[in-house]
Amino acid sequence: MSGRTSQSVPSTPRVISPSPTPSEQDGTGQDGYSGPMTRSAARRRLATPQPVEEDIEEDENPELRRARTRSRSPLDTRKVAQLSPKKPSGTASSTLKPIATTATTTAIATPNGSTGEKAPETNGHLSLPTPSLYYGWSWRDFSRSPSPLGLIPIHRHWRTFVHKHEVPRKALHVSIGFFVVWLYLSGTQTYSVCPYLMGALIPIAAVDVVRHHYQPFNRLYVKVLGALMRESEFSGYNGVIFYLLGAWTALYFFPKDVGVMATLLLSWCDTAASTFGRLYGRYTPRLRRGKSLAGSSAAFLVGVGTAVYFWGWLAPTKGPFPGDENFMFTGTLRLPQLLADAVGLTPAKATISGGLALGVMSVWSGLVAAASEVVDLFGWDDNLTIPVLSGLGIWGFLKVFG
To answer: Acidic residues composition bias: which ranges (predicted)?
Structure first.
């Protein structure tokens, strides 16, 4: 026994039960009966920690009760509200709709239990808003937006000649300017041209309205005249309508030389801006959507050349014709009397004539042509805004300095 070391047996650990719940404290039996308790048991019970209070509410949210953590700590309802998904707004749900698949369909149940029409089953993807092609219009329909490819048959067969460079359309556009020059050389007065313009405007506009309400006729229309149209005009209004309206406005309301110049700027400057803008617009700054510095510069240069051609060569050498006595530009420009007196200039020094006056008038005409080509007035077509704004700019300048 002396050679052997006695090993001490560890004592049995004391197991302390967790804090009793109110249900355990009240009673253990089904009828709430508990056995007798001795004094020693009562003292031991007082020495143990008190039970955790549980506030059980009958109307507690069951979802929050399931989300209770193990530590039974109070739940922050603000964090739960942040985790709830947001409902989509009414605007987005009205414009973006699920794309329907054509393979499978589901039946729509009517209130009486019978099966109604077949509804396409959606695939969960959102489709783009569908534009109204054949009905309805807005002011933005007048704008010459980039043409899609595929609406007019001839644009698919002649992509470069007709669709990209618009050669037939631009040839017609430019030819109107030469026709105006021929009318001027023949001694035709501007007021005698206006009835013919209005006589062509009314039936063309009426046909355009009819073709938008009768699709077989619209398809025949674009098949015959598609080479002279942009594809955006398939569901919009023809640019010829605004061309005739702009030319009629310029020739009817402005003096002869201003009306002729406004029509020439429409015919030649707009074509130059479109041609050079498409060729070199990608290399120059963009002024606004569809307008570049290259196109506006071309419109400015052609406007300067047109003014030099008309006021510097055509009218002096081929005229005068009947009605030329009402020209606003007669080869001289002068400062207003109030401005000349303010700077102390005599009437002779405040007046310029000859080539200097022609140069100033030509530069101003180019600026007016470029500005009227680049401006966006309510989204209207350039064929209407260019002659009207150009005529107003030239008329106002000559009214002050002429």
So the answer is: 52-61
